[in-house]
Amino acid sequence: MSDKPTIKQIIEGAGDLSLALSMVVAVAIGFAIGYGLRSWLGYEWLLWLGIFWGVCAAILNLVKAIKRLNRSMKELENNPRYKSQNDRERDDEDED
């Protein structure tokens, strides 16, 4: 058996990397906006406001990813292929 990753594993890894990169980029953009505002207007606290916005955007990205994962898990929950033996027995009892 080969240790080469399958296409599915590569796609899942890319999705995880995409989430991590989007979080870093969100904070970086927030920092850049805050730095620009600080340079333009001269208020030190604007830098921290920009960083705060970036962190909030990163958290929002994470929440959206969790919701998307929960939706896909709900779809699998109803798939008979992934039901446990106990769930199948309960379904059979319910039909009687």
Comma- or semicolon-separated keywords:
0% strand
Radius of gyration: 22 Å
- Total number of helical segments? 3
Stretches with pLDDT under 50, minimum 5 residues: none
How many discrete domains? Answer: 1
Supply the helix-strand structural class: mainly alpha
Question: Globular, elongated, flat, extended or rod-shaped: what is the shape?
Answer: elongated
Largest sheet: none
Oligomer: single chain
SSE topology string: HHH
Please give the number of β-strands.
0
Per DSSP, what share of the residues sits in E-state strands of 2 or more residues?
Answer: under 5%
Task: Name the average pLDDT.
Answer: 82
Distance between the termini: 45 Å
How much helical structure, as a percent, in the residues?
over 70%
What would you say about this model in short?
The protein is an all-alpha fold and 96 residues long. It has one domain (7-95).
Q: Can you tell me about this structure?
A:
- It is built from 3 helices and no strands.
- It has one domain (7-95).
- The protein has helices at residues 7-41, 45-77, 85-95.
- With 96 residues, the protein is an all-alpha fold.
